[in-house]
Amino acid sequence: MGDTHLSAKAFIKSNLKLALQTGQLSLHYQPQFSLAQETLTGIEALLRWRSKEFGWLNPELVIAVAEQDELIVLLSEWVLRQALTDFAQVQNEVKRLSVNLSVRYLQRRPVVTVVEKYLAESGVSPHCLDLEITETVVLESAPALLNALKQLRQLGISLSMDDFGTGYCGLSYLKKLPLSTVKIDRSFLHDAVSNARDALLYHDILQLARNLDLRIIAEGVENQAQLRFLQLSHCHEAQGYLLAKPMPLSQLLQFTGQQKTSEFLAVAEDIHFL
Ligand code: C2E
Ligand code: MG
Ligand code: MG
Ligand code: MG
Prior knowledge:
GO terms for molecular function: cyclic-guanylate-specific phosphodiesterase activity. The protein has 274 residues and is of the alpha/beta class. The protein contains twelve helices and ten strands.
C-alpha cells in the first residue's frame, strides 16, 4: 500500500493538469435530507477521478497533492465552475449546492470575484450556494481570509464548517467565523450509538450549535440506529450512505424525480478508492 500510495501521489502530481484539461475529472453529488420532513434539502459536490493506471483516485489524496502548489487554484476553480453548471440543471428540484473549498485555495485567490463570475455564468442564485470549509481555516485565520468569508456571506452564500470536531475549531472561533452551518464529523455519530457517554457528547455538540443559531448536518449516517438517534436528537439534516450515496449528475436527475413520490431512498455508488 505504501508504494502504491507514493506512486499514486507522483501520478497525480504529474497528470492532474492534463486530466483537468482533457475532461477526466468529474463530480458526484451526495444528497442531504431534512430529518423532520425526510425531504431532500441539498447536494454536496464531491470530486471524482478515474485513471486507467490507478482506478478511482482518493479525492483527499488528489486535493492534498494539488494543495502543494498552484494546482489547487486550477482544481478548485474547475470544481466550482462545474458544480454550478451542473446545479443549473437541478435547481428546480434542489434548494442548495454545497462545494468543498480548500483553505489553501482561499489563501491564494480573491475567491469572491471568482465565485461571482461563475454564479453569473451559470445563472445560479448565490442563495443556493453553500461553501464548506474545514477547521484548518482557524490556523490560517488571517484578516484577509476572514474578510473574504464575510464578503461571501454578504453575497448571500452560506458557509459550513465541515468535519466539525476533528480539528482546531474552539468555541471562540465558531462564534467569530461567519458560519451558517456545522457538519458534525461522522466519527462522533459512529460512537454515539454505541456508547452512552458519546451520545451525551453528541448532544452537547448539537446544543452548542443550536445556541449559536447554526444549522446542523450530521455526516455519515450508515444505519437505522444512527438515523433514529438523530431524529430523536432533533438534528436538522443528515447525509450518509444509508440515505443516499454520492452519484453522477445523470443519476441525480433521476433521483430528484423519484424524490417527489418517495421518501428516503438509498442509491448505490460502487466505488473503491485506491
Ligand atoms: P467531506 O467533504 O467530509 O465529504 C464527505 C465524504 O464522506 C465523502 O468522501 C463521502 O463520499 C463520504 N461519505 C458520505 N456518506 C458517508 C457514510 O455514510 N459513511 C462513510 N464512511 N463515508 C461517507 P469522498 O468523496 O471520498 O471525499 C473525501 C473528502 O475529500 C471530502 O470529505 C473532502 O474533504 C475532500 N473533497 C472531495 N471533493 C472535494 C473537492 O471538490 N474540493 C475539496 N477541496 N475537497 C474535496
Ligand atoms: Mg464536505
Ligand atoms: Mg465532511
Ligand atoms: Mg472529510
